[in-house]
Amino acid sequence: xxxxxxxxxxxxxxxxxxxxxxxxxxxxxxxxxxxxxxxxxxxxxxxxxxxxxxxxxxxxxxxxxxxxxxxxxxxxxxxxxxxxxxxxxxxxxxxxxxxxxxxxxxxxxxxxxxxxxxxxxxxxxxxxxxxxxxxxxxxxxxxxxxxxxxxxxxxxxxxxxxxxxxxxxxxxxxxxxxxxxxxxxxxxxxxxxxxxxxxxxxxxxxxxxxxxxxxxxxxxxxxxxxxxxxxxxxxxxxxxxxxxxxxxxxxxxxxxxxxxxxxxxxxxxxxxxxxxxxxxxxxxxxxxxxxxxxxxxxxxxxxxxxxxxxxxxxxxxxxxxxxxxxxxxxxxxxxxxxxxxxxxxxxxxxxxxxxxxxxxxxxxxxxxxxxxxxxxxxxxxxxxxxxxxxxxxxxxxxxxxx
Length: 402
Ligand code: CS2
Ligand code: MG
Prior knowledge:
Layout: E1 3-11, E2 17-24, E3 29-33, H1 40-55, H2 63-73, H3 80-101, H4 105-108, E4 117-125, H5 128-141, E5 145-150, E6 178-181, H6 183-201, E7 206-210, H7 217-227, E8 234-236, H8 246-253, E9 258-260, H9 271-275, E10 281-282, H10 291-304, E11 308-309, H11 319-331, E12 338-339, H12 345-350, E13 356-358, E14 361-363, H13 376-379, E15 391-394
Parallel strand pairs: 4-5, 4-12, 5-7, 6-15, 7-8, 8-9, 9-10, 10-11
Antiparallel strand pairs: 1-2, 2-3, 4-14, 13-14
Helix pairs in contact: 1-3, 2-3, 3-10, 5-6, 6-7, 7-8
């Protein structure tokens, strides 16, 4: 079998997505997500101008070889643009392999290790009362784990607290909007939010919180310690992770579990964090971390060191990525949690998929391959719209987030 064509499709059904579709001479096709929030067209160009020409004529069954060719062959290794492009090819080749075998991809990865993929949703609101009402809705829908984000008194906006609820989208303007941040106001307020949530929902609902890289290690240690009475499942992205050893300081001060990795794109971004057991959950995901082939390598390393998976699953990761993520989630031994922010109806229509939510779990598609596709005619009705993630400043105007 040979690859005969590959197309990069950019579409904006309520938000931008970049998708690679590969065709073969035997009629099998595969899809891969290549969306990089706010930098979509950079990946589109990388794929169209530099990757697609090298795919034509290639044997689609050679997944590992193609991964190594694109990674080592480029000379310029790593980085989110490169790794998202490689990931899209990798996903599409796994999709084709599954279709050729007549099996869902999770069967090629060793089969099920569990019955369903436990997911968490996002309860966020401007006030604690709004947050409590949102948590109630998620509990009603059957969720077993909920991420809690609240507006902070004295701050006009807070990243992670959107106007929309189920479909919250942080990329909001062509030129980035700017928000003001105060670590002092944040640290003194957050514990009271979790106190109210535990008071109302009891000890068993799993609770999570995302710090969005806003703190230093010692500040994160203080936050983790102040949240210990509310036994969170995890405190996410407490500090930026370029300096992996920074996490040692957090670990010395708190038993609140730590999750990190949504911006990671290779195993080298987290090898120290994992090997020194400085984190509890690794949040890298298929689209930004080199596809199923490379993410499985990260999860295998994590399994040796008591670290579980907790893949990123915000709305900027398309249903193609979610499909691929679920095949990994259901099969690996050290699965932890999967983030699940629901896509809008328009997005779901452009990407028909076979996975479904029931009783707090996502269930992977049972069709051969990834079990997801792109409706190209419908996609063409939603042209690209520039949108960027916001920039954060301290009250004195300093650009923040370390
Ligand atoms: C967040 C995301 O889902 C999360 O954990 O951190 O909102 C993230 O900021 C966006 O996906 C960035 O594209
Ligand atoms: Mg996050």
